Backbone:
């Protein structure tokens, strides 16, 4: 492990500030800084080892594999940047990217708005709040596979709950999962339904941290409810909004379970997402090299959007 | 108090900024407007509750209906002729019992390992002063941002080439390694960055003085951790355990990749394959969904307060 290479601090300032025991001043000594460092690394041994073996090492491996044509069976052949060049002209990659971007574009703002809206609704001193908080949170607990299955039934064109309810209002619902222009929208609806509860809780935490006197000052200045929201609540929620939108973006680019269970990428490739495509290439076609290159492209995209998001959230703050 | 504004607020703006509502002084007599706002609030939250809960209730209801009643398209929540036939069919046609055991092992295994190693790691980061502490923490935290799919293919290859496991030789060649064993799911997730982070946040709320006194008396660090801090962290450990169990039970893509023999499949993977095999048989499908959701749903209902507060606690940091 990396522990032995660390030199203990020459004189630990912490040890100097700890008081010696009053009754037995010399007999029991504080553990030295070296001892503490040892203990800390021992305690962290398993998490750090697992991190190195299943996170750090795989990232390096993925990068190396992405320059080869590794197919599990057979040998590696070094391809250089050929995989990446192939991605650039791979029509399926562009379809998967477009679908994922479409999903992200719909899902992130919708997820953010619903989470914030429901949090505002529940940010209230009321006995019933806890009960409704639980109700709103329940979809989060179910697995995406179970959620997808439930929605598979809800979205049934004839007997599904959604179209039956739409029918009450005289709306002739589409065949959702069987029409390429509706399939992704259905997946977005389902994802918002399944996920907003968790983000709502994070927003609720953020709302509780907004100092009350800010509102009082705003009201003294004659601010109405909307102005209070716009100039007090929103700016105070910058950090929370950043956290939630980052989580949403990272999650959106990695959407897989729903598309796998509900549509298998169809109809007409309209729900083939990036991770779905990577999964198919890697574990379906066993093109591990190409799949690794794809996952690095995805990583870069997520990184760029996370940074953009950081920029954007910060600018709104100032 | 200048409270003239709250009186002139319309329902729409009150709903748009529900925050402002808690500012109303409790002693004041309610105006009609406020009463209307309260009613509107109730309508809003009840509607959303219906949207979130109704699909689940409808799923349970469908799972108890015979096929003819399901196909009739009626929305009755209470089945006219309740039957357990769908459940019997699920267990009859696929080894759902075996899937259930597999998921339980993975869920409980994940919970126990994350509790133990997460607590150890979190304790070290919260209570022990050492060089590199900030760096270790930063690396762990930033790893939460890395998309899982990147590490998936290499992690699969690593698990497949563990020496001497699953027919492998000393160089890790020739066999399947840990693929198709519980270990392939449990080991990589045994001490997740989230668990360490979560427990670090928790241990930081406990006072340093408790450990310092014992340290002066010469107690070993592990003893201090095991006897003093670990029991005090019970509430946090319970939440972490439940969250880890849920995550393990609900996990889909990773088990799908590393557990590919029929008898190692999890409930989620089994359910997913069910959707395609039984596209029109909604009864058994819904029964399978209920089985796949019930354990986590029950745990959640018993511990919902702690889970939600745990999520809020971590989210607010």
Residues:
């Amino acid at each position: 492990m990396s522990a032995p290479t660390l030199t203990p601090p020459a004189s630990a300032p912490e040890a100097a500030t700890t008081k010696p025991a009053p009754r037995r001043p010399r007999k029991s000594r504080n553990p030295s800084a070296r001892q503490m460092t040892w203990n800390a690394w021992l305690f962290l041994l398993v998490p750090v080892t697992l991190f190195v073996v299943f996170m750090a090492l795989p990232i390096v491996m993925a990068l190396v594999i992405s320059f080869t044509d590794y197919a599990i069976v057979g040998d590696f052949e070094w391809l250089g940047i050929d995989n990446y060049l192939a991605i650039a002209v791979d029509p399926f990659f562009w379809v998967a990217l477009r679908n994922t971007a479409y999903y992200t574009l719909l899902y992130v703002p919708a997820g953010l708005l619903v989470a914030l809206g429901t949090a505002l609704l529940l940010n209230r001193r009321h006995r019933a709040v806890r009960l409704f908080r639980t109700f709103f949170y329940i979809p989060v607990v179910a697995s995406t596979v179970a959620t997808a299955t439930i929605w598979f039934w809800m979205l049934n064109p004839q007997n599904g709950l959604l179209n039956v309810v739409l029918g009450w209002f005289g709306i002739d619902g589409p065949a959702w999962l069987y029409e390429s222009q509706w399939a992704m929208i259905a997946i977005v609806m389902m994802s918002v339904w399944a996920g907003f509860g968790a983000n709502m809780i994070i927003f609720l935490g953020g709302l509780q941290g907004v100092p009350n006197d800010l509102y009082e000052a705003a009201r003294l200045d004659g601010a109405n409810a909307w102005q209070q929201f716009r100039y007090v609540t929103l700016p105070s929620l910058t950090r929370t909004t950043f956290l939630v939108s980052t989580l949403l973006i990272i999650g959106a680019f990695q959407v897989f379970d729903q598309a796998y269970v509900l549509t298998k990428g169809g109809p007409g490739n309209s729900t083939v997402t990036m991770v779905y495509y990577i999964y198919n290439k890697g574990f379906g076609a066993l093109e591990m090299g190409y799949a690794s290159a794809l996952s690095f492209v995805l990583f870069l995209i997520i990184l760029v959007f996370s940074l953009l998001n950081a920029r954007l959230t910060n600018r709104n703050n100032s | 108090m200048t409270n003239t504004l709250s009186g002139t607020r319309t329902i729409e703006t009150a709903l748009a900024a529900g925050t402002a509502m808690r500012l109303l002084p409790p002693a004041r007599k309610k105006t009609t407007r406020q009463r209307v706002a309260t009613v509107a609030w109730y309508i809003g939250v009840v509607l959303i509750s219906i949207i979130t809960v109704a699909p689940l209730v409808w799923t349970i209801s469908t799972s108890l209906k015979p096929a003819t009643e399901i196909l009739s398209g009626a929305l009755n929540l209470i089945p006219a002729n309740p039957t357990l036939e769908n459940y019997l069919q699920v267990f009859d046609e696929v080894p759902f019992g075996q899937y259930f055991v597999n998921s339980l092992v993975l869920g409980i295994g994940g919970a126990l390992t994350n509790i133990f190693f997460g607590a150890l790691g979190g304790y070290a980061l919260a209570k022990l002063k050492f060089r590199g502490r900030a760096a270790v923490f930063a690396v762990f935290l930033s790893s939460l941002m890395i998309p899982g799919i990147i590490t998936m293919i290499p992690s699969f290859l690593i698990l497949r080439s563990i020496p001497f496991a699953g027919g492998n030789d000393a160089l890790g060649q020739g066999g399947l390694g840990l693929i198709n064993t519980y270990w392939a799911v449990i080991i990589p997730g045994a001490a997740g960055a989230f668990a360490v982070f979560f427990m670090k946040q928790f241990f930081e709320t406990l006072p340093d003085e408790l450990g310092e006194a014992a340290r002066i008396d010469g107690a070993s660090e592990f003893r201090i951790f095991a006897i003093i801090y670990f029991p005090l962290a019970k509430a946090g450990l319970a939440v972490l355990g439940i969250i880890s169990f849920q995550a393990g039970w609900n996990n889909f893509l990773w088990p799908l990749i590393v557990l590919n023999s029929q008898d190692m499949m999890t409930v989620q993977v089994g359910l997913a394959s069910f959707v395609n095999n039984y596209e029109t048989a909604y009864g058994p499908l819904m029964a399978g969904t209920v089985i796949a959701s019930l354990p986590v749903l029950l745990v959640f209902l018993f511990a919902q307060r702690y889970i939600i507060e745990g999520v809020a606690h971590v989210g607010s940091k």
